[in-house]
Amino acid sequence: MGKMRRKGLASMAVQTVASATTVDLGPASGLSCRECGEVFALGPIFACELCFGPLEVAYDLPTGDPEALRKQIEAGPANIWRYAPLLPVPADVAEKPNLNPGWTKLVQADNLARELGVAPGKLFVKDDSGNPTHSFKDRVVAQAIEAARAFGFTTLSCSSTGNLAGAVGAAAARAGFRSCVFIPHDLEQGKVVMAGVYGGDLVAIEGNYDDVNRFCSELIGDPLGEGWGFVNVNLRPYYGEGSKTLAYEICEQLGWVIPDQLVIPIASGSQLTKIDKGLQELIKLGLVEDKPYKIFGAQAEGCSPVSAAFKAGHDVVRPQKPNTIAKSLAIGNPADGPYVLDIARRTGGAVEDVNDELVVEAIKLLAQTEGIFAETAGGVTVGVTKKLVEAGLIDPNLTTVVLNTGDGLKTLDAVADTSQATVTIRPSLDAFRDAGLAH
Amino acid sequence: MGKMRRKGLASMAVQTVASATTVDLGPASGLSCRECGEVFALGPIFACELCFGPLEVAYDLPTGDPEALRKQIEAGPANIWRYAPLLPVPADVAEKPNLNPGWTKLVQADNLARELGVAPGKLFVKDDSGNPTHSFKDRVVAQAIEAARAFGFTTLSCSSTGNLAGAVGAAAARAGFRSCVFIPHDLEQGKVVMAGVYGGDLVAIEGNYDDVNRFCSELIGDPLGEGWGFVNVNLRPYYGEGSKTLAYEICEQLGWVIPDQLVIPIASGSQLTKIDKGLQELIKLGLVEDKPYKIFGAQAEGCSPVSAAFKAGHDVVRPQKPNTIAKSLAIGNPADGPYVLDIARRTGGAVEDVNDELVVEAIKLLAQTEGIFAETAGGVTVGVTKKLVEAGLIDPNLTTVVLNTGDGLKTLDAVADTSQATVTIRPSLDAFRDAGLAH
């Protein structure tokens, strides 16, 4: 996964373009195996035929004047398609029906900085709750949609426990796809409604999330699932690239500068690895200055396989059985775990975890300082940031960007007990005076 | 409320600037009574001393080259502060801590258009669920915050049944105000949590929303409430101006063109009247061409006092006792009702209502065609649009903009019964085949 090897792959990938001439995914030139480097033509495949390693998109990225490219991006739409020249999408992507996520707020969080002991002007929250279905999943699904279009799929599918189901349902509806989403049968009512309102088929599976995933894997290999685009399986290489847009936006919003430190949540680990990939691309393209940056991964203690491996100095990740309120991060066997470990170590970062109590505290701290109501995953990143500043691993005088990847409205239960009315009174001034809330 | 009279007021207002020299609210020159035209200095007042009519902000708007102003706006931030020269805020407003709402998506809704029988490219949804706390209330609260700052208040307050409580709590937290929000004691749990998580005081009043409002009116007149900024009472003239930004954004997003037809929900009616005010300002400033437009008001049948008055040809609005799932629009005695009637009639529009069943259908129609999950208020506007197209009152060949002012996540109950899993099955291919969902 070193820089040298990736560069090698990119140039190899260019040679395979000819075999994929019917598929127009813009600068995407092929799929390369992250393990053995083998290159394949663009298609709905996700594992290397030779070594079963994960495939990722290789590019024939624009060369030439970085200033011209920067101007082109800045003149683009206020969504991820401003970066179309760097994504596996056709050049006219912005004209097709899509939810057009992205270009979410990068909030300068001076109040939170004060609480965490970070210098003023140095702490930022990238708030992806501003996306159409209020999570970063809209970014990745938007890419999967374009790949599905290119490959001629008409049904979009996924397994999900929440955010992804809503993102797929919504995007499929607008883009004109049928959707069929698989969920565990005991999902919370609110999440079922959020997934069901978009009108696609919603299949509840008698079993837990692992059972749902196993079933989906069977379905992909069966004629029953033929011609279906599973956004997080056979479209995964394209899907994953959506996370690069977080890196692009953060740098552009900072004035085309890479932040010194980034705190990123880890579920499968894909988001973190793609953000690193995005930063490397910006450097390669000359859009930002090459400079050191540290990437920190954040997990919940109740599902901390990568954090455990990092602390133990291991290269492999030992699966855990998740038990945490941060359900959107509760992947016990994260596919990209080893890559995350490599990036955290290579950049001088770390992987840390926080317990559920601190997750709740951190959600409230963010809400009460910046008015941002984050999902549990946002509580994890803010909580981990607090811990890393206290431990001296995050430098409070350097620029830090913390990701909030989802919306608190989706995980209300986490803070319900502790976010109640201060007092209940009769509608009288005397009762209000007695409550002691006037100043 | 005619154009002539408003122009007269604006020039009168300029003369009062001297008495408000200590208050810098940018182009705001004073407060004028919408009934008798009397002008007052800028301050935390909301009713005319002479006739008790409502006060609204008068401006000393920029004169000169419209092209220069348009360029200045286009170069501004991607939020409401791009319009700072047209709002009652200081010129450096974008540098102060605020939630910076606005610049939400204007979605070209071709799928919905097809379902409603509107020509392709002619129907748009202005989707305010993309605001920081996912409703248009962020726009109005952002204005109130700046007025509160100018008047030296340190506590922000309001009465609310949901959206406003969250918007005030969040904005106060970030902007450094204490907040004290009053809610009915029997509010749904989810809404209490959304209001409580931002850490301000949340006072539950034993009574219904009317009791809460009455209590707040008492509090404002009592020393206990002295120095408090009630966003929707003593800061109301400023607060209301936030809705003008919807007009500005819609026109700019259409390429500085006024849409032919707008469908706007009616609660108090303030939003509709301020959108009309905003459109008139754009014309006066030369930022858009002067052309006819029709404004349509949308209510739920269970709370349709303005619609009833419109249909009966009355100038006054007879209060109703609300009974509808569209709770954010459930104001039985809308303060701006008469002004709404005037605008709908003057522009050649109409006021229409839909029953709760159609509200639910319309929420699902919007979700299933465009991937936008709207609050019940959005179901009201989409449902009313459907009805008005069918009745021939909305021309399907002209441009129509429909407002969605809030997020479906906040009114999940409305669609819960009808947004369930299609089927529940064992995790087996046979079971899936039997379900008949494969193609």
UniProtKB/TrEMBL annotation, chains A, B:
Its cofactor is pyridoxal 5'-phosphate. Transmembrane segments: none annotated. The keyword Lyase applies. The keyword Lyase applies. Belongs to the threonine synthase family. Its EC number is 4.2.3.1. Pfam families: PALP. Keywords: Lyase, Pyridoxal phosphate. Residues 101-406 form the Tryptophan synthase beta chain-like PALP domain. It is an enzyme of class 4 (lyase). GO terms for molecular function: L-serine ammonia-lyase activity; threonine deaminase activity; threonine synthase activity. One of its GO terms (biological process) is isoleucine biosynthetic process. The modification N6-(pyridoxal phosphate)lysine is found at residue 137. This is Threonine synthase. InterPro entries: Ser/Thr_Dehydratase, Thr_synthase-like, TrpB-like_PALP, TrpB-like_PALP_sf.
